[in-house]
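Narrative summary of target 7.
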Amino acid sequence: MANQLVTSLPAEFGLTEGRDTPHVVIIGAGLVGLSTAWFLQEYGVEVTVLDRSGVAAGSSWGNAGWLTPGLSAPLNEPSVLKFGMESLVDPSSPMYVQPRMDPTLARFMMGFAARCTAGQWTKALKQYVPINLTALDAFDEMADGGVKEKTRDTDFIAAWVNPEHGDALVNELTLFADAGLEVGFRELDNADFAKEAPLLAPSIQRAVHITKQRFIEPGNYTESVAESVKARGGKVIIGAQARHIHHGPKGVSVEVDSGEPISGDAVVIATGAWLPELAQRYGVKKIVQAGRGYSFSVGVTEPSLRPVPTPYYFPRERVACTPIGERFRIAGTMEFDHVDAPLRRSRVDALEKSARPLMEHLDYTDKRDEWVGGRPVCVDSKPLIGATRVPRVFVNGGHGMWGISLGPASGKLLAKQIVEGVVPSELKPFNPTR
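Modeled conformation, tokenized:
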């Protein structure tokens, strides 16, 4: 497919008068938007990517960077409700709602809670499997096509203080396998902890070894995709805040707050947690809220463990830990607040407090790279990928915690839909106007 030149598009899409090559404008330079641009280029489409702040400036930079189709499940799992309303307003809780008068947030929380049933979660899980199956292949295609930053294929360790708490994840992994997603896992004997998971603290009583997953350093990887897009003739314009999209039979024009409007044959809105600002007017009515994640990095005190070879996951505490060079990134929490709210020191402290009892050999006096990013969480825990109610206007967002893992697959499938005019089967559950 690489460099296949498109000379015609579906009738409802059509080339702007006077153009020989189609041109698509992508709003958002996170991994989702840049992947969409990259795969459109595979069809020979010209692309321009706009972003108000910078490449990976939203939720793409400081997250855990996990490429985990074996863990990419809907967020509306029934156990979320077990936290109770008291925990949701506790600033030290892994899942926290910043108190404020916001009718949209209230509707989101009620709608999300109503979907936290076993039946709804299982249905959504089955809808995730087809796109999960394509996730890692999309990264491989990008590597073959010139993206220089590599993914790391390694094992993951999931662990619990209370052994019974591990049953939920093991059941989830089994359901994934039953639904057709290949994921390997095995229980670790306590005697194997020191050898296979040397960072685990003595308090850990159960651990599971998960295979066939990968991870990246997300900021560097997203930058690498941007460089590849530019090397293949695309434009990436930073400092361009999209204010309005004008659309008609002769194409689209994106009005920005500085400079001339950017014209094209179609536009993709891929602005993460800011997606509703532009997408709502085009029939995308599902509520999207910023589920803000926090992270920081620490040093590793034991030289023989540097670099740490294996990511660690503590599902009960909602803590994910990833090797980043010689350091170890600790990420987690889900804070529902305004996407542009400043980093809250109490949430960084809560993340550290959760992580400290779980791992050894980490130097918390050497804490750096404190970060907060607003992950776009859709009220029904499913992304919004596809055409809007207005011709030529598409969206790609709402992936929640899985924008890194599923970003390239989403971009590949949406590029196919834009160029060929047919909705891929993997995207049908994620119709943004559902």
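The chain is about 30% helix and 30% strand.
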